[in-house]
Amino acid sequence: MKKQLIAAAVAATMSAVAMADISITGDAKYEYDHTEDANAVKSNTGNTEMHINFAGKTGDTGVVAKFELDTSGDNGAGIDLEDMYMTTKVGDIDVKAGNWASGTGGLLGELEEGGRAQNKIDLRTKVGGVTIYAGNSDKEAAEAGNTGTASTTDAADGDTLLNGNMYAGVVMSVAGNTIEFKKNSDTRDSYGIKGSIQGVNYRYEAMDNDATSTVAAGDASYIELDTTVSGVKLQYAAIDTDVNSFVDESDSGVFAVSFSDATKVATTATEQAQVAISTSIDGTTVTLKSGEITKGLSATQDMDYVQVQAKRKLASGATAIVTYTDRDQLKTGNTMGSNENLEIELNVAF
Questions:
Q1: Three-class SS of residue 299?
Q2: Residue (of 126, 139, 124) closest to 190 by Cα position
Q3: Which DSSP helix (H) or strand (E) runs through 8?
Q4: Nearest 5°: CA angle at 73, between 72 and 74?
Q5: Residue 78's pLDDT is what?
Q6: CA 20 to 30 Å from 315, out of 100, 153, 180, 232?
Q7: What are the two backbone dihedrals, phi and then psi, of residue 140, each rounded to the nearest 5 degrees?
Q8: Contacts of 32 (CB under 8 A, 6+ apart)
Q9: How far is CA 286 from CA 281, 308, 311, 322, in A?
């Protein structure tokens, strides 16, 4: 009996060691959405969404797979494999290869869609405190007016090519500021700087686009300033672009209305400016956003919007978020109206 107990204990220990570098995390949410548009048409929808993330690691090599279970997802209801990539080291070079999405916090994050693509690769290393990186993605195929090597088939499939899709850049710290320069593709260059001065955080990013057969040359930029005074966070953010299609980020982490959301914003839009105030009241985070999109309704009509959000952690472990958004919308006949949206969300991470 003692031998059996010892064997069981050893087996349990070995199993724990074998599983020590494997983790399963995720999140889930339920959303209820009520909208009354400018023509007084009402709609009520609900959505349940869950993410399951698997991660494994051995030495300097890791693998990640992220699944989305959705009742009305981008690819229809069902299971969607979102991210699938591996990370490793080759000498002093960090390697990331596979399919993943970049967030809005990176360079041009509020301007460029950080979409997924098959068989991407990103290589990074540090030399004298300067990060040097290079890689490829399908971004070139998606850029407006591109006449490079990527075909329409490549763009639709999300496949990556080495020709025309390569990017390279450097990131460095100068006097406490982070500065980044990047060659995004054969038609686009960008740079950004972020840091803090006397309690005011700032972020500025800009892109320069060459002319193509269908799109004129031009620039686009994003600026963000924020500070906290007596527990109240104040923020200003703005987008300015010569060509509307240069901005294609559809899931903004800052703006209440995404500049590139074609269901809400006209393709004539050229600028967006927003101020936001956020504070905590008895454990509930309340955020107010107010903004304007120049030519957001038409070539002669701007869009104004306001959003109020309350977010609270519940005793059950879930988080409740209530968001109300009121924005200008053209009625039938192109007279001005208002679109009102109420969204109630319950989410949890595990």
A1: coil
A2: 139
A3: helix 2-19
A4: 130
A5: 77
A6: 232
A7: -60, -40
A8: 44, 45, 46, 343, 344, 345
A9: 7, 7, 7, 10
Q: Where are the beta strands (DSSP E) in 59-117?
A: 61-70, 78-90, 93-99
What tokens does 231 get? 């527990």
Residues of the chain with pLDDT under 70: 1-20, 72-77, 138-165
Long-range pairs for 83-87: beta carbons < 8 A, 24 or more residues apart: 83/116, 85/120, 86/61, 86/62, 87/61, 87/62, 87/63
Is the Cβ–Cβ distance between 213 and 147 less than 8 Å?
yes
| Residue 153, H or E segment | helix 152-157
Which 3 state secondary structure label does DSSP give 115? Answer: coil
CA distance 34 to 261: 18
**Are 68 and 79 spatial neighbours (Cβ–Cβ below 8 Å)?**
yes
Q: Count of CB atoms within 10 A of residue 94's CB? A: 17
Whole-number pLDDT of residue 138: 60
Residue type at position 93: I
**pTM of the full predicted structure?**
0.85
The reported pLDDT for the residue numbered 16 is: 47
The C-alpha atoms of residue 269 and residue 84 are separated, in whole angstroms, by: 35
* Structure confidence at residue 119 (pLDDT): 83
Query: In angstroms, rounded to a whole number, what is the distance separating the alpha carbons of residues 262 and 248?
Result: 10
Question: For residues 194 and 15, what is the distance between their CA atoms, to the nearest angstrom?
Answer: 46
Residue 166 vs residues 87, 123, 160: alpha-carbon distances, Å: 19, 11, 9
β-partners of residue 182 are 169, 190
CB count in 10 Å sphere of residue 93: 14
pLDDT of residue 340: 98
Would you state the structure tokens that stand for residue 328, as one six-digit string?
């200008």
- CA–CA gap between residue 158 and residue 87 (Å, rounded): 20
